[in-house]
Amino acid sequence: MLRTKLTAAVATGAVLVALCACGNAPATSQGKATASAPAQQTKTVQIKKSPDKYTHYVKNYVGMNAANVGYMAMDGRRHDEYGNGVHPVIVFVTPDGTHIDSSDSESKLLRKYRVSNQNVAPNTKIKSTFDKDEDGTEYDNLTTWNSIDEIVLAVDEVGKSGNSTDMTKIKASPNNTTAYIRDYVGRNLADCGYVSLTGKFVDGYVGGSYVQLDVNASDGSYVDVSDSKSLSQYRVTAQSVEPNTELTFEHEKDEDGTEYSNLAINQSISSITLSVEKISK
Q1: What are phi and psi of 12, to 5 degrees?
Q2: Other C-beta atoms within 10 Å of 194: how many?
Q3: CA distance linking residue 174 with residue 234, whole number of Å
Q4: Which residues pair with 251 in a beta bridge?
Q5: What is the pLDDT along the chain (281 residues), one digit of tens a residue?
Q6: Angle at the Cα of 172 (from 169 to 177), degrees rounded to 5?
Q7: Which of 11, 32, 78, 80 is the most exposed place for a label (fewest CB within 10 A)?
Q8: Are 177 and 164 within 8 A, CB to CB?
Q9: Contact assessment for residue 193 and residue 202, using Cβ atoms and an 8 Å cutoff
């Protein structure tokens, strides 16, 4: 029996809108990081060459203009291309949590910012596995797992410096059934996740897993998670699940017992509450 192929985009069930969410029992980080990538770098970093389609190395973004980082994808979020099927999400974090709308085709807002730090150090290895067709032949551009699927970049306005946002180093995923919770503290709420086809505000992780993001405003205000403008007014101050907490799950199987590589079930963590405060104008 032929198994229906589902792409990663369908697996996350999303027409993505750059959105996000915040939390309960506060776990503050990205402001009090447990591990950090090097701060401002001035020298050129030699990035290792990819030896094959399964291995790539994280670029050095420090010093780059934000408009020169990655591209806007059809899912509504910014990505950077490393190889066929390897397109980690790029998240920009400003000093005060202001949202940078990177959907502008001319990148006018992005041009005002320069990268000052990154949460994944240059030359960190990205490992990948690829999906296979019914005959067992690997697809060249359809990955089932990438060990790193998001890179967070701290930015300052061009001509300025001093973004003190600590870049929490998130552990790389070791396989297609394990991920580690991200650090949302310091981010603009609109840069935390997306609205799924079911209307929920979620963030996607490896292997088709995702967590629902519940928003808790400090003044009790209602936050319309379906409205990007509403989300962009808030900054995350705490989260109910600590960064780098392990997220484990299994995969759904078809009638023949074959696993769907992007349909996660039995997740150890299903939701995270993000505490947020309104950004002062």
Answers
A1: -75, -10
A2: 27
A3: 33
A4: 264
A5: 434 344 343 334 443 434 433 334 445 555 444 344 444 445 689 999 999 999 999 999 999 999 999 999 988 899 999 999 999 999 999 999 999 988 776 778 999 999 999 999 999 999 999 999 888 899 999 999 999 999 999 999 999 887 777 789 999 999 999 999 999 999 999 999 999 999 999 999 999 999 999 999 999 999 999 999 999 999 999 999 999 999 999 999 999 888 998 899 999 999 999 999 999 87
A6: 140
A7: 32
A8: no
A9: yes
Which tokens sit at 106? 């001319």
Give pTM, 2 decimals.
Answer: 0.84
- Which DSSP helix (H) or strand (E) runs through 82? none
Instruction: Report CA torsion sign: 87, 179, 125, 44.
Output: positive
The amino acid occupying position 46 is Q
Q: Which amino acid is at 135?
A: D
Residue 232: name the closest of 106, 92, 120 by CA: 92
